[in-house]
From TrEMBL:
Acidic residues composition bias: residue spans: 397-409
UniProt-annotated location(s): Nucleus inner membrane
Keywords: Membrane, Nucleus, Signal, Transmembrane, Transmembrane helix
Region (Disordered): 379-409
Pfam family, one: NEMP
Gene field: 105618588
Membrane topology: Multi-pass membrane protein
Biased composition (Basic and acidic residues): 386-396
Protein name: Nuclear envelope integral membrane protein 1
Signal peptide range: 1-23
Listed InterPro entries: NEMP_fam
GO CC annotation, single: nuclear inner membrane
Similarity-based family: Belongs to the NEMP family.
Length: 409
């Protein structure tokens, strides 16, 4: 009996020590993790764990940068909290423990969290069950988010083409059909609302909650719904589109100029909203909105200013020419100057008598004005002889070429 009692004491002591070691290990485990790009943290114990990312510096190269936290877990029994700091996460956690309330941060099955890379962000995960507490949190980076870039390009196109779209019949019918298909969900909510107890307050609460729930459910399960209920979805969209087209055709496109102007302004506001929300770097996206507005309203001045700024930042490099190009350019510029002189002398601005008084050889000038060469044969032969003598003596060197090129520019 003594040996059995002694054995039971040792077993109880071992169990106590193991539980103490496990509790000490849980307490010693860090509860706050600061993640960087491509970091992964595995959790094996229940309780509240906070995962944070510190804000990064803002550069134009990070304009379409996005970060996403991935939660790899096989259970749905967890509660999420979000905030700016770990203290805010713990405050929300404590408030949730003190009294029962509707937890707006509990997003259920969400396992991907898009965060702003330029702000301090923290996400808290609380799991009560030890058997379901195993999960991995990973931070992934996308340097250029294609969806964000597409939003900006779409916003610029919508803003720039708002005037054309507001006066286009095809755009009118397309928007009418899309709006009709979307608003058909409200009809379903209205019909469903007839089944609940009467009362304006209850109806408003139900309509709001149902709208949010249906939109959220459709968005999260869109691919599954399309795959499993393909025929139903096709007939639903086809019927609602046909009804919307009939209604739009009955009233016809917009003809009032002021209504068209209002539609144009609305489209431009939509375009600016898309541009602004296309990046977490809101200062840069807001600057893009200003640039688009300036280019749209003052195209010539804006393009001229942009061209001058570009030439100032990236000036054109001087291109040196060789000897043959130098001679050809001299001949071309001489012909151009002589042609300009002839045009001026034929114009009413020129006084021929005053011009003749200033000339040493008016007859030669008159022949030049009639189309003859401005050089005499003796002058041409003398120039060729001097040129050949210079080339024979080697006085015309590469240094002279460089000096001539510098003088030319």
């Amino acid at each position: 009996m003594d040996s059995a009692a002694e054995l039971s004491k040792w077993i109880l002591l071992c169990l106590y020590l193991s539980q103490y070691a496990l509790a000490r290990r849980i307490l010693d485990e860090p509860r706050i993790h600061f993640l960087n790009t491509d970091d992964s943290v595995q959790n094996n114990h229940p309780g509240l764990k906070t995962y944070c990312h510190n804000a990064t510096s803002k550069y134009l190269t990070y304009m379409w940068r996005t970060l996403q936290m991935h939660l790899n877990i096989n259970s749905d029994s967890y509660i999420l909290y979000d905030g700016k700091t770990p203290q805010e996460i713990h405050q929300k956690y404590d408030e949730n423990d003190k009294s029962w309330s509707l937890n707006l941060f509990d997003t259920g099955k969400h396992r991907q969290f898009k965060i702003n890379p330029f702000e301090d962000v923290c996400i808290g995960i609380y799991i009560d069950s030890p058997s379901e507490s195993v999960y991995i949190m990973t931070l992934k980076e996308t340097r250029i988010n294609v969806w964000k870039l597409t939003m900006m390009v779409t916003g610029i196109i919508v803003f720039w083409c708002a005037k054309i779209l507001s006066r286009n019949s095809l755009f009118y019918y397309a928007c009418g059909i899309i709006l009709g298909v979307s608003l058909s969900v409200i009809i379903l909510i209205y019909v469903t609302g007839k089944l609940i107890p009467r009362g304006k307050t209850m109806y408003v609460i139900f309509a709001a909650s149902m709208s949010f729930y249906i939109a959220k459910t459709l968005w999260e399960n869109m691919q599954l719904i399309i795959m499993q209920y393909r025929e139903w979805m096709m007939w639903y969209v086809l019927v609602t589109s046909l009804i919307s087209f009939v209604i739009c055709y009955r009233f016809g496109p917009v003809t009032n100029p002021r209504t068209k102007q209002i539609i144009e302004w609305f489209l431009q506001l939509v375009g600016l909203a898309l541009i602004y929300h296309s990046s977490h770097f809101h200062e840069a996206s807001f600057s893009c909105c200003i640039i688009v507005i300036l280019f749209y309203n003052f195209p010539k001045a804006a393009f001229g200013q942009a061209k001058r700024y570009w030439q100032h930042v990236f000036p054109e490099k001087r291109k040196l020419i060789n000897e043959d190009q130098y001679r050809q350019e001299g001949i071309r510029q001489t012909r151009k100057a002589l042609k300009g002189l002839q045009n001026y002398c034929f114009s009413p601005e020129c006084n021929p008598w005053k011009t003749v008084l200033k000339l040493k050889d008016p007859i030669r000038f008159a022949r030049f004005m009639e189309g003859e060469s401005h050089l005499l044969e003796d002058e041409i032969e003398e120039h060729e002889e001097e040129t050949s003598k210079i080339l024979e003596k080697g006085e015309y060197t590469d240094d002279d070429d460089d000096d001539d090129d510098d003088d030319f520019f």
